[in-house]
């Protein structure tokens, strides 16, 4: 005699089968909800004489509200351990397995993220993930405090500075290592700032970093809206990266 499963059980099994499998690439990521955020650097007074177009805050103006779709971003910077699984023959600056990988080109960072089913965050996504919705200048607020992020002389393991945590719970956006973004160095919407470097020669780098004091530490360089740039082929000892992805994945072709 056949035994029939109760209708409720069948319905539960059917619904479970219809759910997409959890992606391993979502592990360790933080959802940044859709909505507006404060983009850009507030207008300041006179700039230090040594600052160029690429290092002044004028390239991060005008400050404005900007709308973004929801997206996911890695909670932590990509570590040596992570990166060496992708590229076992890598030989970069010496570091512990739980340190952020650094000294890699933009192209290597981009290739790693793509291999994980992700991509590099745009600079606007990076800024929203770090500043939240209230436009704070540092992840903890608007008053600078060197003790609240790693601006020291040595790199730290990822996620080890508890106060360097954004309003959404993303770690190390203010210090430790600066980070490559997906974005080319271009003027902001509505900007009247002129810079001969705008275009597709430089990628935008975001975030403060350890050891900056050896270059003459300035509070402005640690502000979340601050834009730094570098050629995508450059390797720098204080720059790493993290990955992101859209909140909704596109449907496969011919899925209907």
Rounded Rg: 21 Å
Biggest sheet strand order reads 7-6-5-8
Number of helices: 5
What would the average pLDDT be, to the nearest integer?
83
Second CATH tier, the architecture: Alpha-Beta Complex
String of helices and strands: HEEEEHHHEEHEEE
Residues in β-strands, percent: 5-15%
Classified by CATH, the class is: Alpha Beta
CATH topology: paralog of FGE (formylglycine-generating enzyme)
Alpha-beta classification: alpha+beta
Low-confidence stretches: 1-25, 46-54
- Relevant CATH superfamily: paralog of FGE (formylglycine-generating enzyme)
What's the number of structural domains? 1
Spatial separation of the terminal alpha carbons: 39 Å
What about the largest sheet?
Answer: 4 strands, mixed
* Percent in helix: 10-25%
Principal-axes shape call? globular
Number of strands: 9
Protein name: FGE-sulfatase domain-containing protein
Domain Sulfatase-modifying factor enzyme-like: 27-245
Organism: Nitrospina watsonii
Signal peptide: 1-22
């Amino acid at each position: 005699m056949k035994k029939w499963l109760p209708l409720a059980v069948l319905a539960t099994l059917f619904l479970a089968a219809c759910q997409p499998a959890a992606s391993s690439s979502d592990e360790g990521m933080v959802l940044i909800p859709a909505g507006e955020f404060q983009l850009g650097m507030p207008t300041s007074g006179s700039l230090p004489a040594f600052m160029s177009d690429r290092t002044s805050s004028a390239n991060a103006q005008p400050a404005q509200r900007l709308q973004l779709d929801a997206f996911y971003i890695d909670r932590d910077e990509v570590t040596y351990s992570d990166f060496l699984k992708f590229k076992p023959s890598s030989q970069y600056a010496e570091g512990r397995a739980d340190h952020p990988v650094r000294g890699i080109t933009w192209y290597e960072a981009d290739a790693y993220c793509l291999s994980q089913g992700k991509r590099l965050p745009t600079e606007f996504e990076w800024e929203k993930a770090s500043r939240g919705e209230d436009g704070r200048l540092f992840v903890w607020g608007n008053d600078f405090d060197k003790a609240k992020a790693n601006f020291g002389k040595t790199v730290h393991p990822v996620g080890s500075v508890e106060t360097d945590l954004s309003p959404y719970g993303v770690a190390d956006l203010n210090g430790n290592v600066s980070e490559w973004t997906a974005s080319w160095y271009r003027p902001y919407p509505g900007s009247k700032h002129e810079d001969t470097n705008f275009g597709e020669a430089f990628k935008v780098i975001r975030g403060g970093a350890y050891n900056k004091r050896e270059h003459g530490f300035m509070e402005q360089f640690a502000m979340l809206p601050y834009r730094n740039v570098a050629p995508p082929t450059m390797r720098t000892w204080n720059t790493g990266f993290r990955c992101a992805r859209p909140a909704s994945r596109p449907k496969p072709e011919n899925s209907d």
